[in-house]
Design a protein that fits this description.
single chain; inorganic pyrophosphatase (n-terminal core); 38% helix; 8 strands; binds manganese (II) ion; globular; alpha/beta; two-stranded antiparallel sheet
Length: 216
């Protein structure tokens, strides 16, 4: 069983892309695979799973040496399990700069493209294989998240075109979906009052992005 995962502190792309790729490996490539998360998904990613009625993948942080894995949405060993180079890395699919430090047992498939989102790359890799609506929905959510609804300067015409095609296909209002996702992201109700007070006027990192939260 191939385990597919993204980075620690999973945001929407690092939650959704392992799910998309595990679906692809299982249903199209015929390779048994399981999406796993290296931690609790952030509040936006949790919303996306509920919205598309997708079960939350198992959370796992320990992996046996030699376990076959596919890494998505990062190529940075600092964002991955400590024994990552003892695992059998079979493929990497990512849209971040090449950091270096990963070592593989043999020649592998590496796809790093200068797009705004891992899910956009997966859309290209999957090609014409028919995807169920929930996979399309998760893909769309990943793109809206990583592009900040196309406001991020990392957004490419390809990301936008894929998102627009998926939204049209699903009959989804992208702006409405993005608004619900971003509302979920800023939902601090998961934190206790004491935790919020500690965060007061401090930088707080969520899903790799840094926020400044102040509590009145
Ligand atoms: Mn990403």
């Amino acid at each position: 069983m191939i385990q597919v995962f993204g980075h620690y502190s999973p945001d929407t792309d690092s939650t959704g892309s392992p799910i998309i790729w595990a679906w692809y490996l299982n249903e199209v490539a015929g390779q048994p695979a399981e999406a796993v998360l290296l931690g609790e998904p952030n509040t936006e990613a949790a919303f996306v799973l509920r919205h598309w009625e997708c079960p939350k993948p198992a959370i796992r942080t320990e992996f046996a040496d030699g376990a076959p894995v596919v890494i998505v949405d990062t190529n940075n060993p600092a964002e991955l399990p400590a024994n990552i180079n003892s695992l059998d890395i079979m493929a990497i699919i990512d849209h971040h700069k090449l950091v270096g430090g990963l070592e593989t047992k043999g020649p592998i498939d590496i796809t790093i493209r200068p797009l705004a989102c891992t899910a956009t790359i997966m859309h290209e890799l999957i090609g014409d294989a028919p995807m169920p609506d929930w996979v399309k929905g998760i893909m769309l959510s990943c793109i809206l998240s990583d592009t900040l609804e196309f406001r991020s300067p990392t957004t490419t015409p390809k990301d936008r075109a894929v998102a627009e095609a998926l939204a049209a296909d699903l009959g989804v209002d992208m702006h409405d979906l993005a608004a619900q996702m971003f509302a979920a992201k800023s939902d601090v109700s998961a934190f206790s009052a004491a935790e919020l007070l500690k965060m007061d006027a401090k930088k707080y990192a969520v899903g790799g992005k840094t926020f400044r939260i102040s509590v009145l």
